């Protein structure tokens, strides 16, 4: 099976900027709900002071995200990409609504039952994240690199946006009765809106953009089996075509083992980036940095600084003279980040809040910069290596969230940011993924 590609050359660029904006919004929606849950950590600490919510919620989240993405990565070539992404975004939306329902039903009270409910929603976010981020990155790798860059920038922007909104809601309701809860409820409502917007954009708008149809037709002509539903949603019918069968290069595939072994250093890079980052952010920053003049604002400011500089770091590779592409250079830079561990330890023990804010900013900057450098370097020579990057990221996230009690140092657990995905494994030596 293939598809009749009756698309003019003009379709190749028609609607490009609209598609880039949609990709940015879809990236934002991929992490907005989870970042919202982490950003309102001051509310959950107030509700559940005995249960360490900033640590436990991430520990619950990770096994579900890791297990789901492992299953999806193994079966990636057989999956319906459209259905996978819609399931993820819909689950994000419904889970965001459940947070509001749970809080209203319990009148904003704590307790072990409510905490178990919140943990269940955190697990649902993990399953949704595994569906959406892997599926979207894999889908966009079949298109132009600007789409993927916009999606990855949207992922980081979700953290900066949620931090900004949390600071605004905290300031607006700080002096009112039950202000902490009112701010959190408004935050949950905004999160639900963004997730509903993502569902509608992906379901009804994105498939019909001309440039998106062009690339999906192209992928189908090359033998991709995962874009059928997307083309049907755009009103394109499939026809018999022998091109894929006649050209053996189009059906040449690498096994999972071959694909992983040829890119093992990139997988290790992604794993180490998130082991380090998520060992510090946000659990250590939220609970282990002592008391300072900023008071209850201190943890929120640290999280906001991390998210803003993470976003800036993701745009730095746009300057070609700043982009790191050497495999050895990437590994050296990533290993050098482990110096952050003693730096944060001694700053928390002996430094003031200014030094801690500066270190947190550098942590975010290096995380965003190195993530994009690895993701845009790794797929060269393949349709995608994204599924193994996704799996490596989840492993790094999981091991970065080992409970504090099992470690010799104060550094503990954390948030999640993932930008990796799944796509067909066909070799295509003429195709490279370069971020413009």
Quick recap:
The protein has 436 residues and is mainly alpha-helical. The protein has helices at 16-39, 41-47, 53-74, 81-105, 112-140, 145-173, 179-205, 210-221, 228-233, 243-246, 248-251, 256-262, 264-280, 283-287, 298-315, 327-336, 340-350, 353-377, 386-399.
Could you name the key traits of this structure?
single chain; 436 residues; mainly alpha; Growth Hormone, Chain: A; 19 helices; 0% strand
Topology overview:
Layout: H1 16-39, H2 41-47, H3 53-74, H4 81-105, H5 112-140, H6 145-173, H7 179-205, H8 210-221, H9 228-233, H10 243-246, H11 248-251, H12 256-262, H13 264-280, H14 283-287, H15 298-315, H16 327-336, H17 340-350, H18 353-377, H19 386-399
